[in-house]
Amino acid sequence: KYKIRADKLLDQDPVLAVALYKKAVGYSPNDYEYRQTLGELYYLTGDKIASLKNLKKSLELNPKNPFALKSMGQLYFNDGDYGSALNLFLKSLEIEPHYLSARHFAARCYEYTGKPEAALSEYKNVIKIKNYFSHLTNLSSYEKALLDMDVSQTANSSGFLKLKLNRLSDAEYDFKEAIRLNSGNALAYSNLASIYFMEKKYDKALEYGKTAAYLEPNDDLHVKNLILIYEKMGDRKTADELRNKSKVLFPVPPDKRKNK
Question: Which contacts (CB < 8 Å, 24+ apart) does range 60-66 have?
Answer without folding.
Answer: 61/30, 61/31, 61/32, 61/35, 62/32, 64/95, 65/32, 65/33, 65/36, 65/95, 66/92, 66/93, 66/95, 66/96, 66/99, 66/102, 66/146
